[in-house]
Amino acid sequence: MFNFVSKLMLLFLLAFPCGLISVAHVRADSVEDSVEDTDAAVDEENEDEDEMLVEEDQVQHSEGDEADADEAADKLVTSHPDADTTIIFTTGEEFPANEIVKFLVGFTNKGSQDFTVQSLEASFRYPQDFQFFIQNFTALPLNMVVQPQAQASFEYSFIPAQPMAGRPFGLVILLSYLDTEGNTFQTAVYNETVTIIEREEGLDGETMFMYVFLAGLVALALFGLYQVLESRTRKRISVKIEKGTVGINDVDMSWIPQETLNTMNKASPKTSPRKRTKRAAGTDQ
How many C-beta atoms lie closer than 10 Å to residue 230's C-beta? Predict the structure, then answer.
């Protein structure tokens, strides 16, 4: 009995520390897990805060860029109140593809200071959004001083591209100039939507070849018809053969008067010349 109790006490002493160690290990694991969860939550919160800050910064920067772009655009299209511009298309209001389009721009200085006209440029824009360039033409440098109450005119020409035919585009014509203080101004002389047309050419290679081929066919048909008609007419015409005079009876004497015929009959012998010669030869013998 004593041995059994001693063995049971020994087992209890051995098992109790192990149980304490396992419980402490489980608690330590749970504490570590909770610490890791809290750290992860803190990290996620910090990341969310950083993302919010970055998005706010991006929004602020984008808003600032848009405002700067708007301000720059406003500055580009700003015109001076003392400057007046007009435009006349010398080649007409049509804009044919792959052909020269010319226009004149008039500039009037209505103020009391000089203006220096710098350049004149034109471009085709996307009709739904004029900020997108479709075809940009070379700017024409002018550098001409227009005195107060004076006028000046400038000529410009461009050629619309062939692939643009049949579609509408926004035509923007800008005139840039400076005042005496060096401030830059720009006036949109023309800012409207136009349609690029495609003119039909008079004769191209294919059309010319077709006309020549048809003319050859018509000429061949006429020549064949002429040959057929000529062969038929040749068969119908009879060949006339001229015959010599056989005797006096074959001669038409209806035009000779009757008195003359009677005289000729009396004077001429009734015998033939051949018999007459024979008789004359017999008498001689």
Answer: 9
> Would the CA dihedral through 26, 27, 29, 30 be positive or negative?
positive
What Rg, from alpha-carbon coordinates, does the chain have? Answer: 60
Alpha-carbon gap, residue 71 to 159, rounded angstroms? 32
Instruction: Quote the tokens at residue 273.
Output: 């010349």
| Cα pseudo-dihedral 86, 91, 92, 98, rounded to 10 | -120
pLDDT tens-place string over residues 23-38 = 444 444 543 554 455 4
Find, among 191, 129, 125, 208, the residue nearest to 164 by Cα. 125
Cα 236 to Cα 229: distance, rounded to the nearest angstrom? 11
User: Can you name the residues that pair with 117 across neighbouring β-strands?
Assistant: 144, 177
Domain ranges of the chain: 83-197
Pick the closest to residue 104 from 116, 118, 114, 92 (CA basis): 92
Please, are residues 169 and 144 in contact by the beta-carbon 8 Å criterion?
Answer: no
What is the Cα–Cα distance from 135 to 148, expressed in whole angstroms? 35
Question: Are the CB atoms for 146 and 132 separated by under 8 Å?
Answer: no
For the stretch 148-172, pLDDT in tens is 999 999 999 999 998 888 899 999 9
Q: Identify the architecture of domain 83-197 in CATH.
A: Sandwich (2.60)
Beta bridge partners of 105: 87, 154
Q: Which two tokens stand for residue 141?
A: 């440098």
